């Protein structure tokens, strides 16, 4: 075994030992970075403070518990606009084959046609929520969650969002 592999293996074992001993806290759910990439002109890496400073809107929707909740968040269209996604009058022709893939920390992924998010096409506002009923999203749901008002099933209400990518369907 060469020296570099030995160092890597020792580092891994040390991390495991520290984790077991409780000396190294790891909280994957504390990720507060959001990456917006793909078919955009200005890929973004947004920190929690960046997202908190953006204008928020409120939407209501029924979660899996069948109760209505009030969510506060940033419209996905605004985030995509900042990243330079094709929206508005430019969303026509070939650009109508674009979709948005949203991925969670655990690898769960959902998609939306870009037109579903564009306010020129859709009447509902899909948000990247960071609060529910006036409180931050709980661990296991946040820090960010997509909320889609009006959907009969909240299957695309993806939790623990880590990235948003605009792609061509072709």
Automatic annotation (TrEMBL):
Classification via SUPFAM superfamilies? Oxidoreductase molybdopterin-binding domain
Name the domain of life: Bacteria
Q: Which InterPro entries match?
A: OxRdtase_Mopterin-bd_dom (IPR000572), OxRdtase_Mopterin-bd_sf (IPR036374)
Q: Where is the Oxidoreductase molybdopterin-binding domain?
A: 33-166
Pfam families assigned: Oxidored_molyb
Return the protein name: Molybdopterin-dependent oxidoreductase
Look up and give the organism this protein is from: Spirosoma arboris
């Amino acid at each position: 075994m060469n020296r570099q592999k030995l160092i890597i293996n020792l580092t891994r074992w040390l991390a495991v030992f520290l984790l077991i001993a409780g000396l190294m806290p790891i909280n994957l759910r504390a990720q507060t970075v959001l990456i917006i990439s793909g078919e955009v002109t200005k890929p973004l890496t947004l920190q929690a403070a960046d997202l908190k400073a953006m204008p928020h809107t409120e939407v209501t929707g029924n979660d899996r518990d069948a109760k209505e909740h009030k969510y506060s968040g940033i419209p996905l269209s605004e985030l995509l606009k900042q990243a330079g996604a094709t929206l508005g009058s430019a969303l026509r022709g070939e650009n109508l084959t674009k979709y948005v893939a949203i991925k969670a920390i655990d690898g769960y992924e959902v998609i939306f046609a870009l037109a579903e998010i564009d306010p020129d096409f859709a009447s509902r506002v899909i948000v990247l929520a960071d609060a529910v009923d006036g409180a931050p999203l709980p661990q296991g749901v946040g820090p960010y969650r997509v909320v889609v008002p009006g959907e009969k099933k909240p299957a695309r209400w993806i939790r623990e969002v880590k990235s948003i990518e605009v792609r061509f369907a072709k």
